Amino acid sequence: SDVCSSDLSVVHINHDIEAPNYPPSERLDVMIYMNDTVPEPRWAKRHVLYMQNAYGEGSELALRNFQSVGYDAYAFISARLLRIHQQTGMQGIFLPFGVDLSVFFPRTPEPDYEFDVTYVGNDIKGEARTTAFLLPATKFNFGLFGNWMIPRARFRVWRNWRKRPEYTYEFEKISRGKIPQEKVPVLYSSARINLNCTAQDCVDWDVITLRTFEVLACKGFLITDRVPSAEKELEGCVVFTDGHADLTAKIEHYLAHERERREIAETGYNYVCRFATVGDRCRELLEYLREIT
Q1: Phi and psi for 69 in degrees, rounded to 5?
Q2: What gap in Å lies between CA 174 and CA 139, rounded to an integer?
Q3: Taking a C-beta distance cutoff of 8 angstroms, is the pair 90, 68 a contact?
Q4: Are 200 and 209 in contact (CB under 8 A)?
């Protein structure tokens, strides 16, 4: 996507998604890249990479590769990664995720989504984290959404080398498949407890995930694994868990204490509306773009 500024007081944000085979029709002031596409001088005056993904090889290694591509500046969802980047003398900004309140907001609960516990995602977090932070939910009325079917090639690797992880048997049986995107906010609003399981790379780099803010924006109650910045910023807004038996105990507790659950969800909702919206992040980004243009 791209951002254009006509002056310091009037800003136009172009929502079109550009691609190498669909470039902008005119040269932009700034183009923001969501992946490692090589900057094209004809497209914009300044080129900014927004590192907002988790990387299997690790974000620090990915950053080293990105730094050689030739961007003018960088935006990071990790303050730690920004500090490492700045030590090289390059420009950057800390730009955590923000939630779109026109999409994620409290919805009227629907019976089909009133699970005791729910999670939306695919099998990409690894055996250790999935076993710790998701598997305990199978003891409850668990609404699991996403692609949890095991590809044949992956199954052959497990068959030939080691025992298939325990959670895969359970999750294949109970997975409800993909959920329509427009129903995700309904699910977050309807379920008694929502779960968050953070990718190890995001834990290592101290990132608060977008899912966290999306659940809270729907006034959903969230139990999440621990990330230092989340424990600092979201104290009283969510419940943190160490997984395994601790997660089981907390699910049992909050299912039995509805008032406490609703009070925490309300606190989280108020936090997101005040401090973590897309509008908040856009203002931070635009101030930075004025500095580099």
Answers
A1: -80, -35
A2: 12
A3: no
A4: no
